[in-house]
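We emphasize that the prediction below concerns an isolated chain of 264 residues; any contacts that depend on oligomerization or on bound cofactors are therefore not represented. The input was used exactly as deposited, without trimming of termini.
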Amino acid sequence: MKAFISADIEGVTGVSHWDETSLGNPQHIRAQKQMTREVAAACQACLDQGYEVVVKDAHSSARNIIAEDLPRGVKLLRGWTSGPLSMMAGLDESFDAVIFIGYHAPGGKDGNPLAHSFTSTDLFTCSINGKIASEFSFNHQVANHYSIPCIFLSGDQVICDEAQISVPGIETLAVKEGVGESTLDIHPEEALERIYEGVTRGLEKKAELVQEEPPYYHVSFQYRAHSLAYRASFYPGVRKVSPYEVVFEGKNIIEVLTTKMFIL
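Result of the prediction step, given as a token string:
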């Protein structure tokens, strides 16, 4: 049995400001330690249930997780493969469960001062089939594409609420709530204990959480600069529908993420 973990940082407890998310910034050191600890708690829950574990470091440089602080036997994918799966790189049909750690509210919503979708500089918001889309919105469809259940997500309250609507029955842990430029966070040790417990429960009911991928995707990107929308509109299949917005379609999430590679 194999479990896949995709890990971000803006939904880690105690992470509240952009300087805490940037590799090389002194404030990042504490954030990456807690990110690593939360991922390690999820890993340990999987290992204790007999799973092999692969972790994708899926934030910014993709060089945040401290490898030596993960349990022995875990494999860590660092850096970017430059393929369309991006934050889900390494996932394939051989896995039995998908876990999301440190995920966050999307651009266009509140609930986290670090809310964004894929980039905080270029994209204001995006949508899938008419609904505001988070990184989770795209990434959990990758799991659906391979018929792998999404069994657990941790992050802010907004993304936990979204996950529970998108995947009824998924185990979630809200480690923070955002108000304006602030976050109200649970204690780091409590986060570790509850991640371990939540992942364990999720693995026990994974058969109930398998979903099918939607038959069709209509995707919208709303950029922060009109020049970016203009540039994106030249990619085959992409149409500019306003000065700041483009739309495109895909038959499956791999097609969608492939287009995203070239226009974002």
